[in-house]
Amino acid sequence: MPQIVTIQLNGEPFTLPRCSSVSDLLTTIASEGKTVATVLNDQIVRPENRSAARLEEGDRVEILIFAGGG
Amino acid sequence: MDSLHLGSYTFSSRLILGTGKFSSSSVMLEAIKASGTGLVTVALRRFNREQPEDDLFTPLSAIPGITLMPNTSGASTAAEAVQAARISRELSGSPFIKVEIHPNPQHLMPDPIETYEASKILAKEGFLVMPYIPADPVLAKRLEEAGCASVMPLGSAIGSGQGLATAEMLRIIIRESNIPVIVDAGLRSPSEAALAMEMGCGAVLVNSAVAVAGDPPAMAEAFAEAVAAGRKAFRAGIMQKSGMAVATSPLTAFLGPAS
Amino acid sequence: MNALLPEWLNPGPDEASFREMLAPDSRWTLELLAAQSRAITLRRFGRTMTLYAPLYLSNHCSSGCAYCGFASDRTTPRRRLEQEEIRKELAAMKRLGISDVLLLTGERTKAADFDYLRTSVATAAADMQRVTVEAFPMSVAEYRELAEAGCTGITIYQETYDRARYAELHRWGPKKDFLERLDTPSRALEGGIKTAGLGVLLGLADPQEDALMLYRHLRHLGKTYWRAGLSLSFPRIRPQTGSYQPPFTISDHLLARMIFAFRIALPDVELVLSTRESPAFRDGMAGLGITRMSIASRTTVGGYSDTESGDRGQFDIFDDRSAEAFCKALREKNIEPVFKNWEHAYNGPSSAEKS
To answer: Do A35 and B185 touch (CB under 8 A)?
Structure first.
């Protein structure tokens, strides 16, 4: 059994160790500490639920911020 | 005090700023401070590891008295806009949502049908819904009935700088509306913002005109002054034009001399 | 007393120019107003005049309006038309070319109650293209029933918005309740009636003040019931059966000024002038702002089939020209008289969706 899983992160393939959580993902991509919204397979994952949310092969994750726009 | 009321929120400034198209975040933040605005719209975007400084939440939250109004730009259907609104609320903690649905990336004209559907759903979920719409008086009333906090008809196409091309429709919308009418899109110069306020708009939303100015903070201040002046004039009661051509044969001769 | 008035009767920021136009000494001369008003009328309504005629169903009344020939203390003989008589009157009206009828009664009485009115509306709707009603205030449910019977519009005059004057003039009866009456057009539109007609009886109180209040009332209705059609009438008191002497005299000039000011301020509202006014005034105002007029009117109960009756009506007709003569006068002014501006098929209640 491979020790990594591949997910779709913001539409791009991304690999990370098996049993990683959404929190782990945020640490990996250095977005921790920033105010982001996380969406796992179209479901919003609130900050308090991020460590419990395990990522599986093929999961779709969106990490979103506020940017400039009218 | 003549304030703008939206839901339970009160704003002393009637200028709303957009945050797109600025040369840098720092210029944008300076412009926002200079404008005295209390309501700023931001877009939901994917986090980009290469450009982590894109995040506007932290710097905007640091400015005192700013409420965020996330928008749903990028959505091309009601379902996408509803999802974007829910995510935005998680992120902003603000009940405001600018519903902005434009299926055509060329002209960015709002889709009235999708906008209406999304607004109806979001109003029921307790959002303060601010739909960006074509200047259509019937649509505006339907959105008011759907529970929107305001309507935001376009003055002209987004970023076009063509001013109040829809003035006649805007006048009807303002005349008939029980909720604030906020002109969004198309304003090029402060005089156009003043004119919109003189017509009776509740507020104006400006983005490009400030963002692409030579000196955005100065332009933001100019817009703030124009908006305040236009509002004051509206409240004071503006003199009506006269001096229409008088018919060669009097129209009221049948009345005889005044007694 | 004023504390109870609804908020929408307070001055608003958009009425400054209307107020200015109403003032006889304003920089708006009558001729300037007329030119502007004519241009708007032409643009919005074209060269047309919609025509209707009143049909008095009953002169029974329970109220004591000091100015009215049908008030309950008058000695006027009382009667109501039975359905067969209504059909006869309608037939006589149709022979005159009329297909748009305004049914009138007094305030609610046992002799002419809601059931009687609803039945009469149904009778008229079977014969006429358009049926509107000027009767007593009703509930939302009653208006809904009336709309289902074929009534598409109601007229309800506040008479005056001056509450002190209103209290003096409405000596007894259900009409004493100022606020109840004020709320009546809203109830009608809520109930699915498609158009509401407002007015004050000019002469009862300060006309400029009343005009401002009418403006606010129309604005409020327009914003709240935005699907509804609105109209405004300009009844001016002339000597009547009750010999009431009004405290204010409304000159032709002031009345014309009011009509022009309303046309300019509210371009979409139908402005109505009845046969109370002189042929010269009516002909002069056609095309300048008025878009709907009554014709060939009888203001007595049964007046269309019994033209010999010596009874006096609710008010005296000044313009007693025949429909033909009046239409000829309109055509000479290049205005088309419109007898049918409505189609039977549209006669159901409005379906205001509440989302």
So the answer is: no
Q: Across all residues in chain A, what is the average pLDDT?
A: 88
Report the relative pairing of strands A37-40 and A4-9 from DSSP bridges.
unpaired
Compute the distance between CA of residue C262 and CA of residue C34 in angstroms, rounded to an integer.
11
CATH number given to A4-64: 3.10.20.30
* Distance (Å, whole) CA B2 – CA C58: 52
Minimal CA separation from B234 to chain C, in Å: 7
Mean pLDDT of B2-23: 94
Residue B250's pLDDT band (cuts 50, 70, 90): confident
- Write down the domain spans for chain A: 4-64
Q: How many whole angstroms separate alpha carbon B65 and alpha carbon B62?
A: 9
Domain range summary for chain C, segments of one domain joined by + = 13-307+314-337
- Which pair of structure tokens corresponds to residue B21? 């198209």
| Chain B residues touching A46 at Cβ < 8 A | 90
DSSP lists the bridge partners of residue C55 as: C103
Chain A, 13-32: which have a CB under 8 Å from a chain B CB?
Answer: 29-31
Q: Which H or E element spans position C134?
A: strand C130-134
For an interface test with A, the pick among B90, B152, B207 (most A C-beta atoms closer than 10 Å) comes out as: B90
Assigned CATH for B4-255: 3.20.20.70
d(CA C20, CA C215) in angstroms, rounded, equals 13
Q: Specify the DSSP class assigned to residue A70.
A: -
> If you measure CA to CA, which chain B residue comes closest to C227?
B138
Query: Chain B residues with CB inside 8 Å of A65's CB?
Result: 44-47, 54-57, 91
- Whether residue C160 contacts residue C166, with contact meaning beta carbons closer than 8 Å, is answered with yes
Query: What residue type is A41 in one-letter code?
Result: N
**Yes or no: domain C13-307+314-337 corresponds to CATH 3.20.20.70:** yes
Q: Which residue has the tokens 């009218």?
A: A70
pLDDT above 70 for C186: yes
